[in-house]
Every structure is written in C-alpha cells, then in structure tokens.
Amino acid sequence: MSDNTTSPRLTDISHIRDLLERHGFHFSKKLGQNFLVNPSVCPRMAEACGANADSGVLEIGPGIGVLTRELAARAGKVVAIELDDRLPPVLAETLAEQDNVEIVSGDCLKIDLARLIAEKFGDRSVAVCANLPYYITSPIIMRLLESRLPVTNITVMVQKEAAQRLCAKPGTREAGAVTLAVQYYAEAETLFSVSRGSFLPAPNVDSAVIRLTVRQTPPCKARDEALMFRIIRAGFGQRRKTLLNSLGTLGYSKDVLTAAMAAPGVPPTARAEQLTLEQFAALANAL
Predict the structure, then answer these.
(1) Sign of the torsion formed by the C-alpha atoms of 89, 90, 92 and 93
(2) Who's near 139: CB < 8 A, 6+ residues apart?
(3) Going by C-beta distance under 8 Å and a sequence separation of 6 or more, which residues neighbour residue 17?
(4) What is the chain's mean pLDDT, rounded?
(5) Calpha distance 238→272 (Å, rounded)
(6) Could you tell me the pLDDT band of residue 106, with boundaries at 50, 70 and 90?
(7) What is the Cα–Cα distance from 168 to 175, expressed in whole angstroms?
(8) Phi, psi (5° rounding) for residue 169?
(9) pLDDT of res. 1
(10) What is the rounded CA–CA span in Å between residue 235 and residue 176?
C-alpha cells in the first residue's frame, strides 16, 4: 500500500493542461472524458468503497490517476482498466511513486472480468471504484452486476439523473427497468452530489456518487431470470400502457396474462411502475 495521496498538482488545472500538452493528449468527446479536478471528491470516493491494506480495488477509466492515487493510498492493490491507449504514458508519470497499481489496457465491456479479478487479486476482497463516462454508465454497471463478480461493492460517479434512476425506489416516477435490475443484484444508495465545475472540461450536467452493495443472494427468486427481465423491460418500454397491453408484445394472450397476474395479486389495470420486484418475479414464475 502506498502512503502517497493525491498530489495537489493533479487537481491543478494549469498543471493538468501542461501535463496533457506534453503528452500530446486531447480530450475525446467520443469517450466521454471529463477529468476530476475537485480535490475533495476522490478521497471521499476511496473511503466510501472501503479499501484497506488487505483488499483490492478495480478501477475503470483512471484518466490521469487522480482517484487511482487515493485508492492506492488505502488498498493493498489497485488494477485500473483504461480504454484510451494515449493515457498509459501519462499514468506512468502521475503514478510513478505508486508500486501497488497496475494499468490494464482494454475495454471493460469486453475483458473477462472474472478472470482478471482472479488473476490480479487472488484471495483479496475486491471493490469496484470509478468515475464512469456518462454515455456508457448503465452498460458498465449491468455488466458488473450480471457477471456476478466476486466484488463487495461498486462505488461510482455517474450523471446525477442516472444516479436518481439507479437508486430510485420501485413504484416512483424515477424508477425504470434498470432500477429493478440493479435492485435485484445490489442495494443502491446515493452518497453525495458533485457539481459540474468539479471536472475538466466541465460537462453540462451535475454528477453524483452512488454505492451498490452487492447482494449475496437476490431479494426474491425468479426461476427464469432472463424471462423476468424481459417482462420488466417490456413493461417499462411502454410504461403508460397497462401490463396487460404492454406484455402482449412478448406473445402472451390476454387470458394467459390475466391468469398469471392474479397469482401475485396484480390487478389487470396495473402498470409496470406499480409493481414491486417480488411481484415481477412471481409474474415470471407464473408465466
């Protein structure tokens, strides 16, 4: 574990510009690159994920290493996956004093994450901590959860609107298909907000840090998880319609749906947003 926390220079805008200019780096809108320059955010994120000398942390998209340094100061080992092949030379400079950090080049949506965790962390307890690009937040989070990786929690910065959706309570206007999917795999909570001025370049929206504490077992039992999630997606895909109408797109007749909905006590007039996760599981089991 390194004793070095974030250098003040890594959150100094003029130093960052000089650093990136020396390496010929230009921000990519396509990759959703916004680097944190608020010095108070990364220590809070690193603390929130619970990293310690005996544990490991998987980071996705380290940027120039501001959060990485904070994680390295707390964790026994940090492995950071970076898609942009222009950044490893920058990270080699900014993380030169951290001997417990390893940079892995690649796409976290394509890498075999279970194998990576097994190879890099061994028997260590592992958490995920990252400042996620807005454009790919949900796919990354769902990949992490659906893969059932051996991780304790996923502590990530996301767009504030996405945080509200991911951490919404079922039955509220903010809740959607992804809300229920996240709830099935983890307990979600919003930790704190982060203003748009905390980044370089500044995005057009504010952010929030959320923590998903991974469940050991789901809160309800769906005999066919894939079917349950198809039903959830179909229901929320036409959320203004009743389930009786929206689930017709899956090929079920109204008679079959009415009988299946009766089992968990779902009225024929119900819409997707009115159901609990347990009711969706019961509906899937009945079908």
Answers:
(1) positive
(2) 109
(3) none
(4) 93
(5) 9
(6) very high
(7) 5
(8) -85, 135
(9) 56
(10) 9
Question: What does the block give as tokens for 26?
Answer: 């230009």
| CA atoms of 76 and 64, how far apart (whole Å) | 20
Query: DSSP 3-state assignment of 34?
Result: coil
Residue with tokens 């206007």: 173
Which tens digit of pLDDT belongs to each residue from 137-156?
999 999 999 999 999 999 99
The model scores a pTM over 0.90: yes
Residue 179 token pair = 């809300």
Which of 25-34, 118-127, 128-137, 178-187 is least confident?
A: 25-34
Find the DSSP H helices in the chain. 13-22, 41-48, 66-72, 88-94, 113-121, 137-146, 160-166, 177-185, 225-237, 243-246, 254-262, 277-286
| Domains of the chain in sequence order | 8-214 (3.40.50.150), 225-286 (1.10.8.100)
Q: Shortest CA distance to 6 belongs to which of 98, 113, 137?
A: 98
Average pLDDT over residues 85-98: 95
**Cβ atoms of residues 144 and 181 within 8 Å:** no
DSSP one-letter string for 99-157: TTEEEEES-TTTS-HHHHHHHHHTTSEEEEEEE--GGGHHHHHHHHHHTT-S-SEEEEE
| Residue 214 confidence (pLDDT) above 60 | yes
User: How far is CA 226 from its chain centroid?
Assistant: 20
For 164-184, b/e burial (b = at least 16 CB within 10 A) is bbbbbebeeeebbbbbbbbbb
197, amino acid identity: G
Question: Strands 186-194, 199-200: parallel, antiparallel or unpaired by DSSP?
Answer: unpaired
Residue 56, C-beta contacts closer than 8 angstroms, at least 6 positions apart: 75, 76, 77, 78, 79, 120, 121, 124, 125, 126, 127
